[in-house]
């Protein structure tokens, strides 16, 4: 049985040789950007959706077991207990991996290999929506802002959130609460911009969409079933199909 580190090194080497572009995220990227080391049970690699098939074929040819449990965002590579997540979007379908991830990637040596990390801005974008009962990535977002705020491209980050700018605003408000002495890490212009949007926006009583499902795949299902809300993840409002959402919902019991 290979150790996790040996497996990761071999898989990274294989992918590098295959020519499939990929970025390293997860604990490795978080340690680099936030300065917080944490044990990890897996390795998170980010690829474009168009490259998933090639990446899986390359690793399958190497003898590893591969699967695509969630066709809208995630594939997995197994070597006994250790595994690698090949991520090409997010569970809510929002943070799709595109050319921008690679254009702003950061060079980093990992396990002795010259590789590239996901940009801090894209990590914040994807983590900001993870607000489940069993997992909340808000603290990660705030730690990243504390360490990287003065260096980040806030214009690009704001553009990433698009119509979901309220999610970014909520984290900025929490950041000022958690770190009163570090509020300067968030540029004044973005606070003013989002505050103006917040003040100008009015409710839309006819818009019966619940965007809570973008934050938690479980905690707002009651609203869909009993309150009559439409699912904010689903096309044409969101990016997921009904089948994709059903697969993602059916896996809730497995994670528990």
* Helix segment tally: 12
Strand content: 5-15%
CATH topology of the largest domain: Beta Polymerase, domain 2
Q: Sketch the major β-sheet.
A: 5 strands, mixed
Classify the secondary structure makeup into a structural class.
alpha/beta
> How far apart are the first and last residues' alpha carbons, in Å?
28 Å
**How many separate structural domains?**
3
Provide the helix percentage: 40-55%
Q: What strand order characterises the main sheet?
A: 1-2-5-4-3
| Outline | globular
Summarize the helix and strand pattern as letters.
HEHEHEEEHEEHHHHHEHEHH
| Name of the top-level CATH class of the largest domain | Alpha Beta
Number of E-type strands = 9
Taking all Cα atoms into account, the compactness measure Rg is 19 Å
Structure in words:
- This protein has 3 domains: 115 residues, Beta Polymerase, domain 2, CATH 3.30.460.40; 65 residues, no CATH class; 47 residues, no CATH class.
- It is built from 12 helices and 9 strands.
- Strands 1-2-5-4-3 form a 5-stranded mixed sheet.
- Helix 1 packs across helix 3, helix 5 runs antiparallel to helix 6 and helix 5 packs parallel to helix 7.
């Amino acid at each position: 049985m290979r150790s996790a580190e040996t497996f990761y090194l071999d898989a990274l080497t294989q992918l590098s040789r295959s020519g499939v572009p990929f970025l390293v995220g997860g604990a490795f990227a978080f340690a680099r950007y936030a300065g917080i080391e944490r044990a990890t049970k897996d390795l998170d690699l980010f690829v474009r959706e168009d490259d998933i098939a090639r990446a899986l074929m390359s690793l399958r040819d190497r003898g590893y077991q591969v699967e695509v449990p969630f066709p809208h965002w995630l594939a997995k590579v197994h070597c006994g207990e250790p595994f690698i997540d090949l991520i090409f979007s997010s569970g809510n379908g929002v943070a799709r991996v595109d050319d921008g991830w690679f254009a702003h990637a950061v060079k980093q040596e990992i396990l002795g290999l010259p590789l590239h990390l996901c940009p801090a801005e894209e990590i914040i974008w994807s983590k900001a929506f993870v607000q489940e009962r069993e997992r909340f990535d808000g603290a990660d977002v705030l730690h990243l802002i504390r360490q990287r705020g003065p260096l980040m491209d806030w214009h690009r980050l704001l553009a990433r959130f698009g119509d979901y700018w309220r999610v970014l605003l909520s984290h900025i408000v929490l950041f000022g609460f958690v770190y009163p002495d570090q509020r300067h890490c968030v540029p004044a212009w973005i606070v003013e911009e989002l505050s103006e949007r917040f003040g100008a926006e009015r409710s839309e009583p006819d818009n019966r969409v619940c965007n809570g499902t973008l934050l938690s795949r479980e905690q707002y299902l009651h609203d869909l079933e009993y309150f009559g809300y439409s699912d904010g993840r689903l096309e044409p409002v969101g990016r997921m199909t009904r089948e994709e959402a059903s697969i993602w919902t059916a896996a809730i019991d497995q994670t528990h």
